[in-house]
Amino acid sequence: MSSVYFLKNLDPVKIKSVLPKFTTPLGVKVHFGEEGNTTFIPAEKIKQIVDLLSSPTLIECNVLYKSPRTRASTHIKLAKEHGFDFAPIEILDGEAGDEDLELPVPGGQHLKLAYLGRGFSKYTSVLFISHFKGHGLSGFGGAIKNIGMGLASRRGKLALHASVKHQVKSEKCLSCGACIANCPVSAIGYDESGKARIDQRICISCSKCLAMCPVGAINIPWGSTTKEIFCERLAEYALAAVSSRQCFYLNFVMSITKDCDCHNEPMPILTPDIGLLLSADPVALDQASYDLINNQYPEFSQFGGLEQLSHGEKIGLGQRQYELINL
């Protein structure tokens, strides 16, 4: 049975009492919030925790969709606009999101390799600070999603989401050639009508074309996999990331919304704030976070997503049984 520590309010002294002594280099995996979003965990709360640590770097990867967070330079600019200017920031998968680190997935049922941001390789220890809330595809997002999706490079994010490869929406294509010039495997050319076309036999799903297209003509095949498989893939990516590293996890169970912090608009709060939870076990942490929300707001269970926990336990990411300890 794993220990999960509970705090009603952010108390740096009590948090420090359960944090391990981290090795260095130390990364702190956070979410900087999408442009227009108002319910991500505020920078000033993250700073109170980061101030407890020795020379940490805030780490994140670029997103799959078009946004200021599609490229490292604008991603960092947005992060600083949101108040994350108190520590160095590294976007692990590089400017265009195509710098990969291949790691094996131990005992993976769906995946044998995970594609994470290349810069992750330098961090021997990581503190994952996650916002536990709902999510449109995974049902909920907490520590497991922050690890698995959050550390995936753009190629990795596509592998998690989709069972098919990108296609070009010809009606939007400008025939500018940006995707052709930047494809690392020459999988894109012009069709007979002068529009870009992706050769599915050659495409390696790196998704660099998505970042380079100025008009969003590259289609992301959302919904090409089931929720259940998506959740299980998240757990497999998370296991690949945390294996052979010193990791600890903190969930903010606050500002609880139906959807994730990647939405570029304000979202309604579903239920009052519950508190903060900490653990060395990401499965137990997410299970406890889920249980506390459901005890207070039973409708949350309708979102689903428990496959993250059951599959995570099955493959050795953690265990669902926990002891909740009040700090």
Which structural traits does this protein have?
alpha/beta; Rossmann fold; 327 residues; 10 helices; 2 domains; Alpha-Beta Plaits; two-stranded antiparallel sheet
Structure characterization notes:
This protein has two domains: 2-160 and 224-326, 3-Layer(aba) Sandwich (Rossmann fold), CATH 3.40.50; 165-219, 2-Layer Sandwich (Alpha-Beta Plaits), CATH 3.30.70.20. 27% of the residues lie in helices and 21% in strands. The protein has ten helices and 16 strands. The chain has helices at 12-18, 43-50, 72-81, 143-148, 154-161, 178-182, 208-212, 227-242, 282-296, 307-315; strands at residues 2-7, 26-29, 57-60, 89-91, 100-104, 113-117, 125-131, 133-135, 139-141, 167-168, 188-190, 196-198, 218-219, 246-253, 275-279, 322-326. Strands 4-3-2-7-14-15-1-16 form an eight-stranded mixed β-sheet, with helices on both faces. A two-stranded antiparallel ribbon has the order 5-6. Helix 8 (227-242) packs across helix 10 and helix 9 runs antiparallel to helix 10 (307-315). It is globular and about 65 Å long. The protein starts with a strand and ends with a strand.
Unreliable stretches, pLDDT < 50, 5 or more residues? none
Indicate the overall shape.
Answer: globular
Measured between the Cα atoms of the first and last residue, the distance is: 18 Å
Q: What order do the helices and strands follow?
A: EHEHEHEEEEEEHHEHEEHEHEEHHE
Q: How many strands appear in the DSSP assignment?
A: 16
Mean pLDDT across the residues is: 94
Please report the first level of CATH classification, the CATH class of the largest domain.
Answer: Alpha Beta
Task: Say what the CATH topology of the largest domain is.
Answer: Rossmann fold
